Amino acid sequence: MTSTEHPQGRDNEPAGATPAGRAPRRDAARNRARIIDAAREVFATQGVGAGLNEIAHHAGVGIGTIYRHFPDKEVLVDAALGDRFTELTALVDQGLAAATAWDGLTHVMRQAVAMNVADRGLRDVVFSSRPGRQRADALRDGLAPRLEQLLGRARLEGAVRTDLTVPDLIMIMLMLTEFAHRSSPVRPDAYRRYLELIISSLRPQSAVDDLGVVLSAAEVQAIARQWAEPSR
Length: 232
Hints:
2 domains, 10 helices
């Protein structure tokens, strides 16, 4: 949150009780929902680097109303994008339930990349962690063991090269979503060809050369933080 986003004085929207009693609570709930919906739409197109003033304008509320519901921007990010992580968790669970691990893994990769391509905010939050995003961080942390389980099954089935790791999958998805963002003005579906090329390279028969040192989880986070939110 930058200093330019703080109002000189919080807007003077009424917050007190009315004779109806429940009307302020209904108005507050309505405003909160409008803010979250607006944040989702703005983050989807601009990423989480979008300013609160833009979200307030999109929601049709004063910026002071945002601050009354969300003490800082990261809390709003968490509220707006937490449900998207629930969708990602459900996606990986679908992969685990597939008839073969290869079918499950490739389904997860295709759908997860498509989700992140369509929603820049989701991409930013998937690939980086910041204080205040407790819900998103907890859900993301729950994805790693599920992916490890799915990848482990694929190894046991002999479906993938044995040196493939979860950090490899994360970096692949990050690279593809960034490429999709850069190429979409020219051809929105261009990334799909490279996704399929990469998927084909995961097969055991592709393991002809040493891939070098595997990235650690900390290194993945450090790289993703530089890439996913470069303007922050």
